[in-house]
Model the fold of this input.
Amino acid sequence: MRTGSEPTTARSALRMRLWLSLWGLAWAVFGLTAFTLTGRPGWAAACGVLVVLVLVDLAVIVHRIHQGPHFQPGRSVPPYEPDHGGRRPYGH
Done:
């Protein structure tokens, strides 16, 4: 059920994003190298753009991880209670 508060209370699995970005970076660098060596400049350029995008994403992820538990909560941080618009929460 949608409560309407998802964008303000949504959390991202930053550690998973970090590992997936690293995996993508490895493949993009591999593609860049392979296409450069085989003489495919269009595909090499596409992989080069992808490398830059992945590096920017990695910088954002690392920055948010370093910001602490507000952006990367651990098991000790409870989830946010959604806003029920001045009404009592369901089940209470």
The chain has a mean pLDDT of 80. Helices lie at 6-9, 14-37, 41-66.
